[in-house]
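ping. complex inputs:
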Amino acid sequence: MEAYLSSLSLIGLIGRLPASVAQGLIWGIMALGVYVTFRLLDIADLSVDGTFATGGAVTAMLIIAGVNPWTSMIIALICGLLVGCVTGFLHTKLGIPAILAGILTQYALYSINLAIMGFKANQAISVDKYYLLISSRNIPPAIVTGLGFVIVVIAVMYWFFGTEMGSALRATGCNPTMSKAQGININTMKVLGLAISNGLVSLAGCLSAQYSGFADVKSGQGAIVIGLAAVIIGEVLGESIMGKKLNFAGRLIFIIFGGIIYYVIYTLVLWLKLDPNLMKLFTAIIVAVFLAVPYLKGQAKNSFARAGKNSAIKEGK
Amino acid sequence: MLELKNIHKTFNPGTINEKIALNGVDLKLDEGDFVTVIGGNGAGKSTMLNAIAGVWPVDEGSIIIDGADVTGLPDYKRAKLIGRVFQDPMTGTAATMQIEENLAIANRRGLRRGLKWQVSSGEREQFKQKLKVLNLGLEDRLTSKVGLLSGGQRQALTLLMATLQRPKILLLDEHTAALDPKTAEKVLDATDTIVNSQKLTTLMVTHNMKDAIIHGNRLIMMNAGRIVLDIKGEEKKRLTVEDLLHQFERVSGQEFASDKALLG
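pong. complex structure:
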């Protein structure tokens, strides 16, 4: 035990923190995509696991082919939008439940992503060989670039969801019956929301591949859960700090914090020399607990067990 | 203004749950008609309103609003012609959105929704004026979330939303049934004010025979998916609850089931 404790160096931990901030910023963008479907549209879209890898795969192959990274990024973003449209089509036009539509898209994307990468499981884009927008080789500029992307994404989201169309999209997620009665085509709005969400996730995948220097077909595995974790951590944090003053922009900013906190925890787990393979278990537990707490709080106030207890007291049993 | 020709609708056809909900409904409303609709449970009152709103396609017949055949249009496309208020106060508004956001969405019913900001400052003034008329103190709470409002407030807001863009037809589906009697009366008063000031063509379903007699210029009674009674003008003004009960027993061969119809 003593040997274990003395092997942990605090300086080592502090040294790793900037990298987790950079990664947290990239995954924060992914979490904003998850927020659009999960919170605004009230759909749990599982296609994002595939879309994240698609973003990386498209970017890597284009950069290897000599395309400018900015152009590659825009193409990756468009690919994400299209993925969202496919899930939306399966859901709204073919009547497949949203969660299953997402699973089908994600499943199909595994093959498609492999095909994009020439049927290799990964493709390297070394910063030594190519001009990249962001790289883990040089952390401070990576944080600045990540922050720049985050600011632009939040600004665009804040603007869009404040427009007539964005407001119609939010109404669709909140109350579809009311939306239809007010003349909103809710199917169009669902497809639009899924497209925006997957576009953001693909953008995050694009940045992540450049950051780590390679695209991997498995890079998106469990992305939905990490995204949810970031959304939930961010919201809980935001609501406890800001209370009722937490507005839409604040919420988006706290989701980015959620992503950063997630990666700080991840770094902590590695620093404690725990097996990083356990991280998926930790993440699942965190998400399950945070999703369960509001429900259990409601149950505590309004349960049969409580009613039974009250009745027993009255009866004098 | 509204014409229903021989509307038929059967739910779950060919199954053990088959239910003929509308069985040849014919109805013609003139501009400015305020029609109250009564009838027992399962008579087809709400189903008729849903058919007009386009919640699902009808099996047979045509629906004509202001000269245009809308039978083939889904609900969100008919919405530009129709304002709706539902029985459940939760149904007509978006709870997680602000009062002004809800009103702004309603103010664009039937219009293209583009990339302009959702609420303009001119609109905000207009919303305040309209909310003031409701007399619920909502004019000072434009940025409150609708989920914080009471059922009566939400229903009054839905009514305002349904009429912000003047609808060709206003459909009120037992919109006071879920409210306590005092609140119900307030919402009914607001309904009268709005319908009369805008001269709206209105269909109001109610369980309460007294309300059906007091409000509107015309009363129809439904039974087994058909309109069985249609009373208007002077004849309606002389109508009493007792008359209606007699009529109901005569046409349906049963006693009016709901106590709520007699009380209140």
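The CA atoms of residues 103 and 197 of chain A lie 15 Å apart.
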